[in-house]
């Protein structure tokens, strides 16, 4: 398949299912998940911080890390890639589905999920916390007024970051919606993900099995590149612009 064919497939598709990963937020200045360990945090592996075991052992340490990421995310702005996905959603309406593994909330801030289609956050959202006792979910206070851990506004219990950690199940409803959308997609777009974390990484395979065209946007080859019908080897904003026929 050539770029012109990929463009045509996307233009003509009634149902488009998109999976995004940390690469989509890289142009907003948020390091990708596997690059995020810098400075003080360089001695920790993501698995050592983003896991129920780590939180059980040292909740203050895990909260400190998430509070730092929350501050960074609040300062960041959605980029051109986020905006083009919102534009595609406007074009496809309820035929558009976006499943993100990102917990930074930037898709929502760019308008995704409110332009006629659907957005699901498969790994949660680090701008919110969830009560360990009663499951109540609440937005975190503004970073300047936030001292972790937050207390539940409903029952007073300790709250944890509202994200999916290694070894935890994904939210059932969100995952089921994503599986349905990818199974029914004409085109699956896989953008800025290394494709190493399942079940999200398996969504493209499901779309392909049902006859969809799968297009990857990523500057480098990934674990799941071999499955793709076509790949745009570029950053998310330029890769999407090329696919939507919007190069400068
Ligand atoms: P990774 O950090 O594993 O991968 C980021 C991908 O983005 C890589 O393939 C990069 O090549 C690509 N990339 C970098 N810059 C890009 C750009 N400007 N445009 C497009 N692509 C770019 O992040 P994820 O695949 O999202 O899970 O990681 C998946 C999950 O693993 C995360 O959600 C997290 C993590 O462990 C949990 O926390 C449960």
Describe the 3D structure.
The protein has 248 residues and is an alpha/beta fold. It folds into 2 domains: 3-30 and 78-123 and 170-243, Rossmann fold, CATH 3.40.50.1220; 31-75 and 129-163, SIR2/SIRT2 'Small Domain', CATH 3.30.1600.10. The chain contains 10 helices and 9 strands. The strands form 2 sheets. The chain has a 6-stranded parallel β-sheet, sandwiched between helices. Strands 5-4-6 form a 3-stranded antiparallel β-sheet, with helices on one face. Helix 6 (80-92) packs parallel to helix 10 and helix 8 (172-183) runs parallel beside helix 9. The longest helix is centred in the first third of the chain and has 17 residues, at 59-75. The protein binds 2'-O-acetyl adenosine-5-diphosphoribose (OAD). It catalyses: N(6)-succinyl-L-lysyl-[protein] + NAD(+) + H2O = 2''-O-succinyl-ADP-D-ribose + nicotinamide + L-lysyl-[protein]; N(6)-acetyl-L-lysyl-[protein] + NAD(+) + H2O = 2''-O-acetyl-ADP-D-ribose + nicotinamide + L-lysyl-[protein]. Keywords: Cytoplasm, Metal-binding, NAD, Transferase, Zinc. Substrate binds at residues 66, 69. NAD(+) binds at residues 101-104, 192-194, 218-220, 236. Its EC number is 2.3.1.286.
Strand order of the largest sheet: 3-2-1-7-8-9
Give helix % range: 25-40%
Termini separation comes to 23 Å
The count of β-strands is 9
CATH architecture of the largest domain: 3-Layer(aba) Sandwich
Q: Tell me the overall shape.
A: elongated
Report Rg: 18 Å
Could you say how many structural domains there are in total? 2
CATH topology of the largest domain: Rossmann fold
Largest sheet: 6 strands, parallel
* Proportion in β-strands: 15-25%
Text of the CATH class of the largest domain: Alpha Beta
Low-confidence stretches: none
Bound molecules: 2'-O-acetyl adenosine-5-diphosphoribose
EC number: 2.3.1.286
InterPro entries: DHS-like_NAD/FAD-binding_dom, NAD-dep_sirtuin_deacylases, Sirtuin, Sirtuin_cat_small_dom_sf, Sirtuin_class_III, Ssirtuin_cat_dom
Family: Belongs to the sirtuin family. Class III subfamily.
Cofactor: Zn(2+)
């Amino acid at each position: 398949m050539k770029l012109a064919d990929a463009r045509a497939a996307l233009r003509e598709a009634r149902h488009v299912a998109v999976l995004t990963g940390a690469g989509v937020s890289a142009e907003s200045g948020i390091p990708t998940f596997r690059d995020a360990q810098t400075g003080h945090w360089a001695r920790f592996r993501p698995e050592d911080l983003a896991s129920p075991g780590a939180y059980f052992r040292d909740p203050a340490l895990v909260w400190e890390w998430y509070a730092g990421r929350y501050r960074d995310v609040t300062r960041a702005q959605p980029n051109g890639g986020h905006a083009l996905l919102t534009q595609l959603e406007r074009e496809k309406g309820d035929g558009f589905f976006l499943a993100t593994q990102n917990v930074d909330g930037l898709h929502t801030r760019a308008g995704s999920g409110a332009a006629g289609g659907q957005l699901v956050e498969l790994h949660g959202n680090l701008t919110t916390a969830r009560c360990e006792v009663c499951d109540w979910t609440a937005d975190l206070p503004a970073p300047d007024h936030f001292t972790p851990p937050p207390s539940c506004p409903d029952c007073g219990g300790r709250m944890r970051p509202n994200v999916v950690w290694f070894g935890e199940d994904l939210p059932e409803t969100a995952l089921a919606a994503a599986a349905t959308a990818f199974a029914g997609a004409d085109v699956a777009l896989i953008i800025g993900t290394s494709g190493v974390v399942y079940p999200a990484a398996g969504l493209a395979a499901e779309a392909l099995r049902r006859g969809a065209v799968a297009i990857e946007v990523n500057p480098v080859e990934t674990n799941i590149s071999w499955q793709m019908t076509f790949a745009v080897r570029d950053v998310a904003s330029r890769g999407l612009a090329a696919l939507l026929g919007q190069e400068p």
